[in-house]
Amino acid sequence: KVYTVPTLDASNQKLHVFYAVPNGTMRFPLISYAHGAAGGGTIDIIGYTALFTQIASYGYVIAAPASCNDGCKDTKNRPYTDCAGLPQIASAGWNSWYGEQLKTIVWAKNQSTAAEQLKTIV
């Protein structure tokens, strides 16, 4: 299933979520997937679909942001990329990339009625 998540980077705010059909009231652990360089975007998710489907069949929910395929557009680092006082990454377009996985986790935890089924299984 694909969701649009406004808090993700402006480069692509799509979040691809894979999960098995829940049976009963079981809850499943969430994997917030971090793609590598050129691994996000619209086309690259096709290469991950088989892998994510297999992982989901073992009882995991995989959330894979498509943002920052070839660098991030957003330059705001806080609060997701503040590293306890460490210097910021000085790489144009990548200084906020690793915050996308944290944004994904927050999104999954805060689902509303728009995706209530997901909230009940994560």
TrEMBL record:
It comes from the Eukaryota. InterPro entries: AB_hydrolase_fold. Gene3D superfamilies: alpha/beta hydrolase (3.40.50.1820). This is Feruloyl esterase. It comes from Haptolina ericina.
